[in-house]
């Protein structure tokens, strides 16, 4: 019976999370299409759809990255008829591509990175013990830490990477259409990236709405409860040091205990003097 109730609770929580995701995607789509055109700066507006995809990628993983990208692609494909199936393909593909980099690491990948880190530490310790070995200069660009980056930083980088890839694809499409690409196109992309990065501040209320900060507080409370706590009265008793050590009381029935058998001292064998060998010269004189 409790297992059925727990399964029902999991289903309800999953359904609530899914409906929250749908609500946020629709809300960001409405903001992108109705509000952002009135907030243009130099004819440039940010891409809030990429921001919500980045938030879902970092918060819930690769599955929700694909779901959010597919939903955005379906909505845009239904609203515009300029390029057939373009939005339906580009958004899920970019979401999955960036999710490979910015989503939480899997347990296998994390364990592999821990093993590599332990190997590097052992190699560094071996080099310190053997100073005569020539030290190698190693430059690592790839991040090999077994811990994920800060979630807010990953959301920012993910949204910027999504916008850059999307604008790059659009730039290629413009070039294939026969339009000459100028410096203004790249400047426009730069302004879009900056404006989108500024709009990433919405990740704080969105993550709060998803309940991610409450989950972190609950986890920290559970860790504090799991820590060993000593009673204050017990600490006071432990801290009190008596002036004189109490006399050890003898047990009442001590006479019933068998005394350990004492070994009798063995008679000491007196060392007899060892006869010295006769001198051969004295024997010759006697003869």
Keywords:
287 residues, 0% strand, Arp2/3 complex 21 kDa subunit ARPC3
Briefly note the CATH topology name of the largest domain: Arp2/3 complex 21 kDa subunit ARPC3
Class by helix and strand content? mainly alpha
What top-tier CATH class of the largest domain fits best? Answer: Mainly Alpha
* SSE topology string: HHHHHHHHHHH
How many extended strands?
A: 0
C-alpha Rg (nearest Å): 40 Å
Helix content: 55-70%
CATH architecture level-2 label of the largest domain: Orthogonal Bundle
Overall 3D form: globular
Number of separate structural domains: 2
Uncertain spans: 267-271
Helix count equals 11
Biggest sheet: strands, sense, closure?
none
**Mean pLDDT, nearest integer?**
78
Measured between the Cα atoms of the first and last residue, the distance is 119 Å
Strand content: under 5%
Describe the structure concisely.
The protein has 287 residues and is mainly alpha-helical. The chain has 11 helices and no strands.
Topology:
Elements: H1 2-35, H2 48-60, H3 62-79, H4 86-102, H5 107-129, H6 151-176, H7 183-199, H8 203-209, H9 212-226, H10 232-239, H11 280-286
Helix pairs in contact: 1-2, 1-3, 2-3, 2-4, 2-6, 3-4, 4-6, 6-7
């Amino acid at each position: 019976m409790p297992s059925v109730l727990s399964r029902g609770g999991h289903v309800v929580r999953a359904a609530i999370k899914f409906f929250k995701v749908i609500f946020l995607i629709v809300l960001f789509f409405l903001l992108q299409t109705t509000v952002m055109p009135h907030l243009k700066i130099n004819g440039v507006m940010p891409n809030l759809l990429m921001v919500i995809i980045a938030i879902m990628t970092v918060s819930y993983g690769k599955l929700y990255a694909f779901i959010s990208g597919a939903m955005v692609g379906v909505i845009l494909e239904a609203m515009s008829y300029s390029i057939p199936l373009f939005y339906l393909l580009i958004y899920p593909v970019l979401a999955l591509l960036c999710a490979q980099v910015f989503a939480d690491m899997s347990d296998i990948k994390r364990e592999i990175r821990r093993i590599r880190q332990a190997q590097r530490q052992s190699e560094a310790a071996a080099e310190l013990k053997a100073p005569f070995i020539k030290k190698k200069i190693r430059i690592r660009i790839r991040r090999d830490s077994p811990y994920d980056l800060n979630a807010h930083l990953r959301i920012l980088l993910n949204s910027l990477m999504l916008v850059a890839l999307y604008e790059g694809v659009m730039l290629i499409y413009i070039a294939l259409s026969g339009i000459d690409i100028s410096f203004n196109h790249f400047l426009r992309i730069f302004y879009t990236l900056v404006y989108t990065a500024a709009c990433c501040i919405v990740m704080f209320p969105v993550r709060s709405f998803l309940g991610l900060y409450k989950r972190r507080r609950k986890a920290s409370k559970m860790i504090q409860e799991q820590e060993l706590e000593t009673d204050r009265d017990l600490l006071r008793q432990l801290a009190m040091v008596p002036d004189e050590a109490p006399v050890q009381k003898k047990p009442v029935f001590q006479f019933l205990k068998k005394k350990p058998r004492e070994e009798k001292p063995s008679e000491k064998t007196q060392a007899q003097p060892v006869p010295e060998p006769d001198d051969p010269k004295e024997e010759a004189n006697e003869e």
